[in-house]
Write a structure and sequence with these properties.
heterodimer, A: mainly beta, B: mainly beta, 7-stranded mixed β-sheet, 4-stranded antiparallel β-sheet, 0% helix
Chain lengths: 112, 115
């Protein structure tokens, strides 16, 4: 079952620009996570934001969470060609035995 | 170095054959997971295990089987009953079950192609 929906599906920017990716979800959550996947590789965890948090930073990454709108955004500042990858948001719904559910991902291309 | 090791990285199978994908972790994690990834579909949960000798079906368990005899190992068997097995398979682990908990650690994946 799909919980998170990322937007846009694909994004192409120039090196040095900022990249903003959005995720919307349908039900109440415990936390929301962002992952990165390079082509043909496994996923790597980037950042986790809990439902009682509004913003988190990690290096060039900034994540916001708006629980009233059921949405999150991932901002990558000063992008690099090495940031080219697919980015997934994943949510943990509230409730016992909830499972982490992934969206379909956003393909980010950073042009040198 | 701690991590998750999946093997083989590439696997070709004839129709009607069962194949087993290996997943080993040395992170001392209790929970382990198998996901399937198809182009444009994101990740779908096949099976998960919260503790040794226990596992539960995920969203798309039909045609798959697993075992969890050791904490470190969670092999996935793709049986001949799986109608469309060609996909990229990802194994993951976490300190405890993902509900309300932290991050998943992923292996590098196994790409299965049915000829």
């Amino acid at each position: 079952s799909q919980q998170g929906e990322e937007d846009p599906q694909a994004l192409s920017i120039q090196e040095g620009e900022n990249a903003t990716m959005n995720c919307s979800y349908k039900t109440s959550i415990n936390n929301l996570q962002w992952y990165r996947q390079n082509s043909g590789r496994g996923l790597v965890h980037l950042i986790l934001i809990r439902s009682n948090e509004r913003e988190k930073h990690s290096g060039r990454l900034r994540v916001t969470l708006d629980t009233s709108k059921k949405s999150s955004s991932l901002l990558i500042t000063a992008s690099r060609a090495a940031d080219t990858a697919s980015y997934f948001c994943a949510t943990v719904p509230t409730g016992a035995n909830s499972k982490l559910t992934f969206g379909k991902g956003i393909t980010l291309s950073v042009r040198p | 170095d701690g991590g998750i090791t999946q093997s083989p990285k590439y696997l070709f199978r004839k129709e009607g054959q069962n194949v087993t994908l290996s997943c080993e972790q040395n992170l001392n994690h209790d929970a382990m997971y198998w996901y399937r990834q198809d182009p444009g579909q994101g990740l779908r949960l096949i099976y998960y295990s919260q503790i040794v000798n226990d596992f539960q079906k995920g969203d798309i368990a039909e045609g798959y089987s697993v075992s969890r005899e050791k904490k470190e190992s969670f092999p996935l068997t793709v049986t001949s009953a799986q109608k469309n097995p060609t996909a990229f398979y990802l194994c993951a682990s976490s300190t405890r079950f993902s509900g309300g908990a932290g991050e998943l650690f992923f292996g590098e994946g196994s790409r299965l192609t049915v000829l």
